[in-house]
C-alpha cells in the first residue's frame, strides 16, 4: 500500500514545495557535515524528486549536477548479483550448483554454491587489500583466498561479508557470457536502464564524475582522495552512478521496471535463513540487504569508496525508492540525518541500518578474549585498562567493546563515548566456547585464546 503522508496543508505536499524543502535541507546538512557535494533522489511511485548540491571536485571547482556520477564502492555488488540472477533465469547456470562447476579455482571449496556467494553465506574470507589484489589475476586471487583452510564456517550456515565472493561472482559472469564484467554490466544492465555507464579506470569518462574527498578535521578543508581498487575487484566496487541512476535500479529491484523479470526481483529480495548480518541489516538476500520496519521490508545496499558514501533503499509494497550519494566520508552521517528529515517531511520512514533491539544491561564476557582471523585480517580482543574487552584490528588502536547477554556487542567511540552497533560473538553449540566474532558484518574465526 502507498505511504500516507502526514496531515498538512495540501499545498505543502506538492512535489514542487517538497523539492524546495529537500533542497534546503540537503544544502544545510552538506555544510554541517562538511560534504563538498551530494545528491538525493526520492521516487514516491508517482513523482520523482531529485536534488543536488555543492562541488564534485574541490581541486577543479566542478559543480555537482544531477548527472554527476559518484564512485559507488560496494553498491556495485547488487548490480553484479542482478547479472548472475539474469543468467540463472535464462538457464545458463543454477543458483544451487557448486560455483566450482564454472570456476575451477574454487575447487578447494566444492560445497560453496552460487547462491552462497551472492548472499555472503559462503564462509569465504573477505580477501586481501586492493594493493595486494592488484599484483595478481582473478583466478590466482580466488585460488589463494578460497581455501578449505581459510573457510570461516560451513557454507550456508552463517554470514560474513566477502569481497572475494563477488570477485568470484564477477568471474562467473565472464565465464558464462564470454564478456568482460565491465562489458556485461554495461550491455545487460546500465544501457537497458538508460544509464550512461561510468566505471573506475575509464580513460575518458562518458559523463561528469565526482572525486571522493578526505576532510581535515582541524581545518575543515576537503581534499580529493585517490580511488584504489584493483581491476579484478571491479565486480565488487567499480561502478559510478548518480542518485537518479540508483533510483532507476531500485525500481527494477522492486519490480517496477522491465530490466528484471518480477520473479527474479522477488528472488533477490528473498531473505536467506542463514544470513544474519548483524549491524549491517536485518537480513540478506541474493545481493541485497534487507531492512524490517514495522510491517514493511525494504531492500537496498550501502557503498563506500575512498571518500564517498552512497545508499539505496526501495520498498516494494509502496513503490518508494530513495537514493543518495555524497563525496566525503561525512556523507554517511549526512545520509542518516537526511533520512530523518524525509520522515519528518513525508512520513516515509527510511531505514538506514539494522533495528536496534533492547538487549538489556551490558554483561561481562570474559571468555571472548582471544585472536580471531578472517583471511589475512587479525582481530584481537583483549582486556582494556579498565578490564573491559577492547577490539584491535590488524594492530590498530583498541576500541572498547560493550557486550550483552545475547552475545551482541557495540563499539564505543574512544573520543565521544558514543555506542555504535558492532556485531556479535558466536558460541560453538557443541562446546559452548566462543569460537567466532562478527564485526561490521565480517566474521573472524578464533585461532588463539587470551
The side-by-side strand order for the widest beta sheet comes to: 3-2-1-12-11-10-9-8
- Rg for CA atoms: 22 Å
Strand share of the residues? 15-25%
Helical residue percent? 10-25%
Mean pLDDT: 94
If helices are DSSP runs of H or I spanning 4 or more residues, what is the number of helices? 11
Helix-and-strand structural type: alpha+beta
Low-confidence stretches: 5-12
Beginning-to-end CA distance, first to last residue: 53 Å
Secondary structure: number of strands: 20
The backbone outline, from C-alpha atoms, is: globular
Q: Biggest sheet, open or closed, and with what strands and sense?
A: 8 strands, antiparallel
Task: Write a compact overview of the structure shown.
With 450 residues, the protein is an alpha+beta fold. The protein has helices at 15-32, 77-89, 114-118, 130-133, 138-145, 163-177, 181-190, 234-237, 243-253, 262-269, 331-346; strands at 37-43, 48-57, 62-63, 70-71, 212-215, 222-225, 240-241, 283-284, 289-293, 296-303, 309-315, 320-326, 370-374, 377-383, 389-393, 399-403, 408-412, 419-427, 434-439, 442-449.
Architecture overview:
There is one protein chain. With 450 residues, the chain is of the alpha+beta class. The chain is built from eleven helices and 20 strands. The chain has helices at residues 15-32, 77-89, 114-118, 130-133, 138-145, 163-177, 181-190, 234-237, 243-253, 262-269, 331-346, and strands at residues 37-43, 48-57, 62-63, 70-71, 212-215, 222-225, 240-241, 283-284, 289-293, 296-303, 309-315, 320-326, 370-374, 377-383, 389-393, 399-403, 408-412, 419-427, 434-439, 442-449. The chain has an eight-stranded antiparallel sheet, sandwiched between helices. It has an eight-stranded antiparallel β-barrel with strand order 13-14-15-16-17-18-19-20. The protein has a two-stranded antiparallel ribbon with strand order 4-7. Strand 1 (37-43) and strand 2 form a beta hairpin. Helix 2 (77-89) crosses helix 6, helix 2 (77-89) packs across helix 7 and helix 5 packs across helix 6. The radius of gyration is 22 Å and the shape is globular. The N and C termini lie far apart (53 Å). The model is unreliable at 5-12 (pLDDT under 50).
Amino acid at each position: 500500500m502507498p505511504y500516507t503522508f502526514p496531515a498538512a496543508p495540501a499545498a505543502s505536499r506538492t512535489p514542487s514545495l517538497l523539492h524546495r524543502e529537500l533542497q534546503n535541507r540537503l544544502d544545510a546538512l552538506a555544510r554541517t557535515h562538511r560534504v563538498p557535494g551530494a545528491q538525493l533522489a526520492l521516487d514516491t511511485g508517482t513523482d520523482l524528486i531529485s536534488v543536488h548540491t555543492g562541488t564534485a571536485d574541490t581541486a577543479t571547482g566542478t559543480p555537482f549536477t544531477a548527472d554527476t556520477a559518484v564512485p559507488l564502492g560496494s553498491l556495485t555488488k547488487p548490480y553484479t548479483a542482478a547479472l548472475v540472477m539474469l543468467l540463472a533465469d535464462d538457464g545458463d547456470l543454477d543458483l544451487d550448483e557448486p560455483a566450482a562447476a564454472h570456476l575451477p579455482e574454487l575447487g578447494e571449496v566444492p560445497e560453496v554454491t552460487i547462491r552462497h556467494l551472492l548472499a555472503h553465506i559462503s564462509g569465504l574470507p573477505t580477501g586481501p587489500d586492493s594493493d595486494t589484489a592488484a599484483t595478481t589475476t582473478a583466478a590466482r586471487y580466488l585460488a589463494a583466498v578460497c581455501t578449505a583452510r581459510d573457510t570461516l564456517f560451513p557454507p550456508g550456515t552463517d554470514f560474513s561479508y566477502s569481497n572475494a565472493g563477488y570477485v568470484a561472482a564477477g568471474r562467473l559472469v565472464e565465464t558464462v557470457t564470454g564478456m568482460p564484467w565491465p562489458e556485461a554490466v554495461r550491455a545487460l544492465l546500465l544501457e537497458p536502464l538508460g544509464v550512461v555507464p561510468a566505471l573506475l579506470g575509464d580513460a575518458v569518462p562518458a559523463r561528469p564524475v565526482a572525486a571522493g574527498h578526505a576532510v581535515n578535521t582541524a581545518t575543515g578543508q576537503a581534499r580529493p582522495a585517490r580511488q584504489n581498487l584493483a581491476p579484478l575487484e571491479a565486480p565488487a566496487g567499480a561502478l559510478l552512478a548518480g542518485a537518479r541512476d540508483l533510483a532507476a535500479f531500485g525500481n527494477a529491484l522492486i519490480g517496477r521496471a522491465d530490466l528484471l523479470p518480477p520473479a527474479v526481483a522477488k528472488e533477490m529480495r528473498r531473505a536467506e535463513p542463514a544470513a544474519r548480518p548483524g549491524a549491517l541489516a536485518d537480513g540478506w538476500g541474493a545481493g541485497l540487504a534487507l531492512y524490517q520496519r514495522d510491517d514493511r521490508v525494504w531492500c537496498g545496499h550501502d557503498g563506500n569508496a575512498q571518500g564517498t558514501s552512497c545508499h539505496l533503499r526501495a520498498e516494494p509494497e509502496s513503490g518508494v525508492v530513495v537514493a543518495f550519494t555524497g563525496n566525503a566520508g561525512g556523507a554517511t552521517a549526512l545520509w542518516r540525518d537526511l533520512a530523518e528529515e524525509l520522515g519528518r517531511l513525508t512520513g516515509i520512514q527510511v531505514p538506514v541500518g539494522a533495528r536496534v533491539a533492547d538487549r538489556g544491561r551490558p554483561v561481562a564476557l570474559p571468555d571472548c578474549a582471544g585472536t580471531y582471523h578472517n583471511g589475512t585480517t587479525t582481530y584481537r580482543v583483549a582486556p582494556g585498562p579498565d578490564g573491559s574487552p577492547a577490539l584491535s584490528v590488524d594492530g590498530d588502536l583498541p576500541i572498547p567493546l560493550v557486550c550483552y547477554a545475547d552475545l551482541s556487542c557495540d563499539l564505543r567511540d574512544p573520543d565521544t563515548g558514543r555506542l555504535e552497533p558492532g556485531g556479535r560473538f558466536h558460541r560453538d553449540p557443541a562446546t559452548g566456547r566462543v569460537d567466532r566474532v562478527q564485526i561490521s558484518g565480517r566474521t573472524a574465526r578464533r585461532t588463539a585464546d587470551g
